[in-house]
């Protein structure tokens, strides 16, 4: 017997999330909803509860693609269905696991039968099962990018395509797309964020009474799921009926020219890219009107639509938090509001300024602030020989142990950096940094299948089977194949890596001008790691030892926040920093042996703690080199007299040394251009 689901109407609070899900239930064309929030906030519970409110659907009996008998898909692989009978069934909720493969998502062809028998044997995937239902992706930010792209393309087009060795299958795939994520575990790329229609930020309530009610209801459900659900049946039924009524009213809702101008004016005022935001806002405003039981869109609908559709489209920098300035929103709406006594071009806007449909919109707005434009690339304030003599650190403060530290300084503006990668070919998670064997990329060779065959190498298979055709008694045109003949493609792509930053935060680095440039360089490398889908970690060393300031994580944003608050001062325990990095990488190698590390050491090469401090640090570097850890040393030494200690340390790490000036991608390009110009002049 299936356990009763937790009722949607029994969930306490989270009004924005409730509204976003219901609007998508009324109009799936809104484009789905992305739920961002901390762990333990009932994100998954509410999404799963929504499926029970959706109206049942009529399907063709025996169709694996849930075709509607009234309008069957002409391309359905199980069709044609003209004149087929109808069968009622509930809408499905299909959950997509994080480790899912592309074949499991879109389905796959039985390549062995296709070659040996010439039949198109297609096994549907999760997209086919989700058709006309809900597709739920928990932890969508941990899903591989190419799978997220594939899902969002299917959601936008309403159709899934499968292409295998010249054989094509297509079928309808229209579903309500819901993704949940914890931002602490990493962000989605802005391009992917834009593909979700709405976004909602949620957090656990801080009100003791509300928290108590949440616990009370959960304990009641755990004690007797069926009895608890029965107490909410009436409210669930009323809400389901309202969804059905809003769906029926939706085609009758009118979007006036006045409301449309307000929508486009708001999108222009917030400088969102493209026109997808305008379209999503228009669809959301229409759904809001239908949900409120109205046939005209009002200003309150436009305002609520903006709060739900625009915050995640305001990001310009990977480290910007999604948000919306509601004061700016109100000003823009007021500027394009029809005067009460003036001529009208469309229906009069008599709704209140703000508020929600019949009390379903919560009071208050979305998250404040955020957005912000992308920072213009700027030169780091690298100390020159003339300036180094009068650099002055920030006012020091005394720590409990007697060490003096400087207050954190702001980072310089980030810029595009050189690409650093790990040598050799890996097998890690797909990304954009180092060469690897991946599911995507160009084919480099063929091999015998490892497990189920999914990427047939046709020419290699034919070459393997050809010498045995006479012995196998081939009589007609059909090729006689055996399992041993099959070959699969080996593809070369790129993987993501673990980028471990080891940052010297000691007194030798504490000069304000230099630390601003160093933080800007590390922030730039963090942005590069974000774009290449790496995991990052942060080890800092100063004073008496080293600290793991950020355990390896996919959340580059957390790394940027920890870097911003990094204080400096004290002695330089370089050996401790390298040994801590060695331990962190050892543990991570056990957790994820396929993810190769890249060590980025940020230091001027100095070490304190006795006469043998430098030799000890070099021995620690040798431990990392012996483990084959790829390393880059960011040389932060400045001043008229330079000892070259950082470059010597890079040699012990078997890595490269790069100065702050050499880190910039445009700096390297300009050096190449200068060299080419000089060579051309000499030749002339």
UniProtKB/TrEMBL annotation:
Residues 342-352 have a biased composition (Acidic residues). InterPro entries: AAA+_ATPase, BchD/ChlD_VWA, ChlI/MoxR_AAA_lid, Cob_chelat_sub_put, Mg-chelatase_DI-like, Mg_chelatse_chII-like_cat_dom, P-loop_NTPase, VWF_A. Residues 335-450 are annotated as: Disordered. PROSITE patterns: VWFA. SMART domains: AAA, VWA. It holds the Pfam family VWA_2. It comes from Kitasatospora saccharophila. Residues 498-675 form the VWFA domain. Residues 364-375 have a biased composition (Gly residues). This is Mg-protoporphyrin IX chelatase. NCBIfam families: Cob-chelat-sub (TIGR02442). Belongs to the Mg-chelatase subunits D/I family. Keywords: ATP-binding, Nucleotide-binding. CDD domains: vWA_Magnesium_chelatase (cd01451).
């Amino acid at each position: 017997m299936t356990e009763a689901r937790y009722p949607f109407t029994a969930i306490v609070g989270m009004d924005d999330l409730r509204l976003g899900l219901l609007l998508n239930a009324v109009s799936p064309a809104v484009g789905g909803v992305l739920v961002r929030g901390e762990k333990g906030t009932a994100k998954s519970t509410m999404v799963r509860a929504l499926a029970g409110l959706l109206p049942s659907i009529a399907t063709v009996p025996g169709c694996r693609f849930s075709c509607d008998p009234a309008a069957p898909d002409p391309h359905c692989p199980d069709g044609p269905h003209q004149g087929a009978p109808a069968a009622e069934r509930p809408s499905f909720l299909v959950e997509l696991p994080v480790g899912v493969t592309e074949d499991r998502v879109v389905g796959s062809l039985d390549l062995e039968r296709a070659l040996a028998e010439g039949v198109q044997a297609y096994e549907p995937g999760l997209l086919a099962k989700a058709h006309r239902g809900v597709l739920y992706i928990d932890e969508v930010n941990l899903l591989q990018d190419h799978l997220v792209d594939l899902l969002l393309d299917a959601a936008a087009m309403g159709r899934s395509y499968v292409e295998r060795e010249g054989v094509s299958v297509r079928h309808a795939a229209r579903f309500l797309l819901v993704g949940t994520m914890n931002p602490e575990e990493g962000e989605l790329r802005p391009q992917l964020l834009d593909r979700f229609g709405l976004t909602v930020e949620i957090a656990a309530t801080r009100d003791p009474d509300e928290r108590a009610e949440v616990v009370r209801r959960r304990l009641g459900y755990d004690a007797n799921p069926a009895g608890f659900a029965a107490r909410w049946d009436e409210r669930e039924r009323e809400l389901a009926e309202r969804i059905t009524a809003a769906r029926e009213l939706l085609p009758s809702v009118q979007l006036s020219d006045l409301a449309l101008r307000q929508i486009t004016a708001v999108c222009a005022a917030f400088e969102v890219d493209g026109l997808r935001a305008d379209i999503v806002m228009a669809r959301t405003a229409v759904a809001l009107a239908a949900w409120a039981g109205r046939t005209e869109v009002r200003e309150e609908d436009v305002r609520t639509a903006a709060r739900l559709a625009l915050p995640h489209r305001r990001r310009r920098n990977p480290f910007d938090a999604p948000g919306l300035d509601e004061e700016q929103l109100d000003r823009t709406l007021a500027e394009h509001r029809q005067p009460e006594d003036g001529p009208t071009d469309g229906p009069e806007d008599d709704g209140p300024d703000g508020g929600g449909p019949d009390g379903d919109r919560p009071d208050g707005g979305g998250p404040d602030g955020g957005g912000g434009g992308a920072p213009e690339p700027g030169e780091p304030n690298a100390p020159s020989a003339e300036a180094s003599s009068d650099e002055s650190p920030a006012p020091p403060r005394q720590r409990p142990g007697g060490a003096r530290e400087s207050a954190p300084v702001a980072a310089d503006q980030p810029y595009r950096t050189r690409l650093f990668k790990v040598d050799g070919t890996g097998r890690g998670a797909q990304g954009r940094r180092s060469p690897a064997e991946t599911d995507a990329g160009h084919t480099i060779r063929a091999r015998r299948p490892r497990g189920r065959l999914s990427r047939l190498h046709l020419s290699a298979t034919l070459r393997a089977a050809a010498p045995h055709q006479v012995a196998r008694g081939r009589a007609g045109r059909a090729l006689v194949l055996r399992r041993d003949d099959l070959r699969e493609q080996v593809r070369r792509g790129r993987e993501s890596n673990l980028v471990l930053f080891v940052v010297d935060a000691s007194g030798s680095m504490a000069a304000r001008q230099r630390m601003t440039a160093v933080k800007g360089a590390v922030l730039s490398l963090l942005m590069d790691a974000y774009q290449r889908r790496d995991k990052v970690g942060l080890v800092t060393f100063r004073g008496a030892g080293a600290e793991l300031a950020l355990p390896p994580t996919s959340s580059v944003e957390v790394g940027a926040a920890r870097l911003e608050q990094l204080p400096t001062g004290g002695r330089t325990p370089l050996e401790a920093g390298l040994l801590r990095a060695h331990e962190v990488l050892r543990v991570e190698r056990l957790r994820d042996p396929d993810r190769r590390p890249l060590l980025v050491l940020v230091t001027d090469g100095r070490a304190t703690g006795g006469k043998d401090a430098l030799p000890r640090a070099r021995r620690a570097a040798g431990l990392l080199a012996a483990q084959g850890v790829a390393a880059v040393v960011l040389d932060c030494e400045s001043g008229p007299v330079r000892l070259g200690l950082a470059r010597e340390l890079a040699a012990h790490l078997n890595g490269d040394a790069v100065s702050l000036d050499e880190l910039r991608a445009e700096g390297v390009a300009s050096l190449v251009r200068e060299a080419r110009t000089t060579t051309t002049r000499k030749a002339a």
